[in-house]
Amino acid sequence: MLNIKIEKTTAPKRIPQKGEPLGFGKIFTDHMFMMNYTEGQGWHDARIVPYQNLSLDPSAMVFHYGQEMFEGMKAYKTDDGKTCLFRPDMNAKRTNGTNKRLCIPEVPEEDFVEAVKAIVKVDEAWIPTDPGTSLYIRPFIIATDAFLGVAPSKTYLFIIILSPSGAYYASGLAPVGIWIEDEFVRAVRGGMGFTKTGGNYACSLAAQVKAHDAGYSQVLWLDGVERKYIEEVGAMNIFFKIDGKVVTPMLNGSILPGVTRDSVINLCKSWGMEVEERKISVDELLEAQKAGKLEEIWGTGTAAVISPVGKLRYKDDVMLINGGEIGELSQKIYDTVTGIQLGKIADPFGWRVVID
Ligand code: COI
């Protein structure tokens, strides 16, 4: 038990009303969760305070060597007014996977989930209910030692902020165009590709700018060694339907173990579909496309949920997928995942977690 102290704001902000466009990650609620770590003392001083700026020493290690991690989760309101999370235990586990790799102290899983539930409960009036909206939850940890030496920090801050949000892509469920990057790489095996840390996203920006300039909305990364095998999209894992089978890159240490990825694999298997987690080369995709067997592509992520891919570019080849339209399976997966999240359909897996 964290024994969280709660200090409510005396100046509540205006909560966006039904029908107001929210965008993604632009609006923040009235409160935030904070907890400190000090070597020898562990995590301490769990508190919920009014949303505010941080005051940090300019030499704080996070600014210089990037020792930080983050997570992405969502809270929803069901039709009967309950506040729900989706598989928060998976985010707690992944947090500690990231923390181990980055020498950040682990957060007990039950404390992580308790903190998320507590802050969401305090600001639950901010959970939007328009279709496609949710309360995006961003837990993160930063290294705060005032020190310019390269070493693990001895002090940290764990913070959770909340953002009422709409679709991650402005296009919503409309299929996106994806650029297969053949110059830059995101991660290599043995690196930190499987973690949620800012460096993985900073290193994606140059390729993203290139892709945007060419009219594509996201970058699909290839493996860092042979530049031949499909990895992930950065903000999403990627799935292919090839000749009736669902195929997705296996977890190889350089891609993110996505919560939505795992959920989609489980769903497809529960529908009796064959799901292969394995290496997929870009050549295999090109050949499948030529043979008319590349039936659907979609990305999965907490922010993006399910994002159909309508166009895929690799060097001089541009592949139009399912005529640029959302595929039948992508739509079924989207309806099922969001149906479970929003409590509109049964949850045979026990993924929905109600906050009392
Ligand atoms: C998420 O899907 O929650 C993420 O953290 C990805 C982020 C780039 C928006």
Overview of this protein structure:
- With 356 residues, the protein is an alpha+beta fold.
- It has two domains: 5-165, D-amino Acid Aminotransferase, Chain A, domain 1, CATH 3.30.470.10; 176-340, D-amino Acid Aminotransferase, Chain A, domain 2, CATH 3.20.10.
- It is built from eight helices and 17 strands.
- The strands form two sheets. Strands 1, 2, 3, 4, 5, 6, 7, 8 and 17 form a nine-stranded mixed beta sheet that branches. Strands 9, 10, 11, 12, 13, 14, 15 and 16 form an eight-stranded mixed beta sheet that branches.
- Helix 2 crosses helix 3.
- The longest helix has 14 residues, at 88-101.
- The structure holds 2-OXO-4-methylpentanoic acid.
- 2-OXO-4-methylpentanoic acid binds at residues 72, 235, 301-303.
- 2-OXO-4-methylpentanoic acid is lined by residues 72, 235, 301-303.
SSE order, one letter for each helix or strand: EEEHEEEHHEEEHHEEEHEHEEEHE
CATH topology of the largest domain: D-amino Acid Aminotransferase, Chain A, domain 2
Mean pLDDT, all residues: 96
CATH architecture of the largest domain: Alpha-Beta Barrel
Number of helices: 8
Radius of gyration using CA atoms only = 21 Å
